[in-house]
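pasting for ref
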Amino acid sequence: MEKYLIMCRSMTHAQRSQRLLERNGIMSSLIKAPVALTRSGCGYALILRRHGREGIRILKDAELLLGKVYEKVDDEWREAAYDVS
């Protein structure tokens, strides 16, 4: 199962991104960003369990894809290449 984690700069940015995805039929979960993936130990992220590449494209087109994107590989988050052009 594909699983993507999209890092967001703030709660507001995460909520705005989540609303855009929902308007496009893509469900996501808003979570506190994993400490291992943040420099400061704070931040928020969205998890997409389905339609990840489509969600990334939507956020990129809306200029809301501002943080890193990670993909779950073998129970580990790895930085993902998200070129969806």
